[in-house]
Amino acid sequence: MPFDPIVSPTVRVAPHREPQFVHEDQQSAAARRLDEYRTRTGRRPNVLVVLFDDVGWGDFGCYGGGGAVGAPTPNIDRLAREGLLLTSCYSEPSCSPSRATLLTGRLPMRHGLLRPPMYGEAGGLAGEVTLAELLAEAGYVTQAVGKWHLGESRESQPQHVGFDDFYGFLSVSDMYTEWRDPYFFPEIVYSEERTAWVENQPFNRCFVHATRGGELDNVEEVTIPVLSQLDDKWCEYSIDFLRRQAGSDAPWFLYHCTRGAHFDNYPHERYLGSSPAKHPYKDTIVELDAIVGRLHETLHDTGQLEDTLVIVSSDNGPEMETWPDAAYSPFRCAKGSTWEGGVRVPAIVSWPGLIDAGRSSDGLVAFTDLVPTVAALADIAGSVPSDRFIDGVDQTSFLLAPEGQSNRKYQYYWLLDHFSALRVGEYKFMLESISDDDRDVLNPGGFTGVTQRYPYGRLYNLYLDPKETRSYLIRKLAYLDSFQSGIREHLLTFRDFPPKRVVGGGG
Ligand code: CA
């Protein structure tokens, strides 16, 4: 029977694992390719994750943006031509939940970071097992650079959760600078008392360096001029790392998280006015594209390109409450919501020789899938924890087989601790969401709206109606049982594996 994502059955490989499609032909094709690589090189692949902040699905030229929206992205477009462009890759609705999901293979309701921790707030990754830990135990050199935002408490800092070295900041861009900018906070900037009050808050205003198991060293206070240079400095740090590793037999994992293009954007002076749009957000996109180019060129020049899986993505959709300092997405609503605009992110995966060039796929991929997939590629699938639920599926055969198809059947959308929607194939069945009614919200942004619950559910056909404007449910009742059973099976996993709420939730 030909494969169909709605009709074809899945297999639950273990009680603690998300069910997945098993495409036998593509599995053996992928295994042959991986075996050939291992035999020829005697290596396991390096892994470079470049994660942008609040960059939209439509910002890059290869997604229909680029020059058409005032910021050409030739380096990212080239990476897409050399690899696989994903059109249905899903993050979580905001920064910290997405990042924790990427590093643990678990949904926010399992790792517990339901929203970003605020100034000095406790809580983070304690008790979780990260991809960096799994890879480090298997002999990988692990490096984190740039934005962390997974909790500032000691046990959640990168050098305590698997990274050998960290160079970056622990929080989020606007926290360092917005109260310094008289345009946004005149009442603080022009008040010595309020400035002193902010400076006394329990928040580290510096970007930092740390090595495995050690304490943080402050590198420099993140003033606005310093912030404008961070992405350049962090790129240089990663380039140095890549050059150092070139001579080593050990494989490596580089988790490079940019500052840009989270509000407020202050591009490096080399990039001021560099975009046709001349806007700081767009100039920052041009700068980020150049950073991808510099990292790619370093891999090429040091002979590591063909040994490296490269993944470029963004941690959530556009933050529209700060428009026009905001990304572009053709989808409905924004960051903070479970409409497509909040969670459908650009994602490009490249590994020359192993992933065929020039592919694109609308197969479902979730941020949870990174952990089991990289674990399989690194030949440590058996190390993925078995004492907790892992929501990711192994996408190795999707990536490596010629014209491979996704192994994921369902995309689950969670809004804090509320189950919001299920996608399978082109259909999205939504039970609860953020209102983006423009009489009620700003711009319209995903954090501003109220939650709405739909007593009968809404059904969107994302192929006919990618902006989710017309519920199709009453004409498509034949699907209802299968959507409901998909949701029921998913929710039942929380009976055996109880949810965890560390930051946020309870409502
Ligand atoms: Ca973000």
Which helices and strands occur, and which strands form pairs?
Blueprint: H1 24-41, E1 46-52, H2 74-82, E2 84-90, H3 95-104, H4 108-111, H5 131-137, E3 141-147, E4 165-169, H6 173-177, H7 186-189, H8 192-199, E5 206-211, E6 217-221, H9 224-246, E7 252-257, H10 280-301, E8 308-314, H11 340-343, E9 344-350, E10 359-361, E11 365-366, H12 370-377, H13 396-400, E12 410-415, E13 418-424, E14 427-434, E15 451-461, H14 480-496
Parallel strand pairs: 1-7, 1-8, 2-10, 2-11, 3-4, 3-7
Antiparallel strand pairs: 2-9, 4-5, 5-6, 8-9, 12-13, 13-14, 14-15
The protein binds calcium ion.
Calcium ion is lined by residues 53-54, 95, 262, 315-316.
Summarize the structure.
With 507 residues, this protein is of the alpha/beta class.
Structure description:
- Helix content is 28%, strand content 19%.
- It has 507 residues and is α/β, with parallel strands linked by helices.
- It has 2 domains: 24-406, Alkaline Phosphatase, subunit A; 414-496, Arylsulfatase, C-terminal domain (2-Layer Sandwich), CATH 3.30.1120.10.
- The chain starts with 23 loop residues before the first helix and ends in an 11-residue tail after the last helix.
- The chain binds calcium ion.
- The site of calcium ion has 6 residues, from loops.
Distinctive features:
alpha/beta, Arylsulfatase, C-terminal domain, eleven-stranded mixed beta sheet, 14 helices, globular, binds calcium ion
